[in-house]
Amino acid sequence: VVLHIMPYLGSLGMSRYFTGMIAAALPVCSIAGRLTFGWLGDIYDKRYIMSISYGLMSTGLLFLCYADRIWGGVYLFLLFFSTGFGGLLVLRSSTVREYYGRQFFGKMVGILMGFSSIGGIIGPTLAGWTFDTTGSYYTIWLAFCILTLMSGLFILRVSPPSKNHSSRPGIMDHPVP
């Protein structure tokens, strides 16, 4: 989405200046999600907060599908997608820590980032291929919307960590003599 936002909005007839401003606003607007969802993740069950994050991203993608037909669709996309995306960025690592403990944190984050990199290769390539083949991004945005919504539902099915697992001491939990 981030890689193709400018070409997509340009294909809808929006100016390069406007599309550039939207692309620049995505990471800036995600700060609100990072702060809010990071805070909420410390208070409530992270699975529910992550599900809300995925829901916001999915809603944003739905608005992106109809950005040329709904007044303010681009701004609604920016609001929902970037807030949810920012929230996921901070929740991902803290959830790994909570579910796997400090002992396996590095290994699990490495695995997670590895799969994220694969998605970072496949997603933009698939989006570009879809546009080149169909002349539109609509189908791929809708597919990403559905997959993101499914992710939000799947995260709810994850069992919470057991008390003895999440409290397992890590290196930093031992006092220094």
Can you describe this structure?
About 75% of the residues lie in helices and about 0% in strands. The N and C termini lie far apart (about 50 Å). It has about 180 residues and is an all-alpha fold. It has seven helices and no strands. Helix 2 runs parallel beside helix 4 and helix 3 packs antiparallel against helix 4. The C terminus is likely disordered.
Care to give the gist of this entry?
Helix content is 76%, strand content 0%.
List the quaternary state of the chains.
single chain
Helix content: over 70%
- Shape descriptor reads globular
Distance between the termini: 50 Å
In round numbers, the mean pLDDT is: 89
* Class from helix and strand fractions: mainly alpha
Q: Unreliable segments (pLDDT under 50, ≥5 consecutive)?
A: 166-177
Cα-atom Rg, whole angstroms?
A: 18 Å
Number of strand segments: 0
Task: Give a quick account of the main beta sheet: strands, pairing sense, barrel closure.
Answer: none
Enumerate how many helices there are, as a single number.
7
H and E string: HHHHHHH
Beta percentage is under 5%
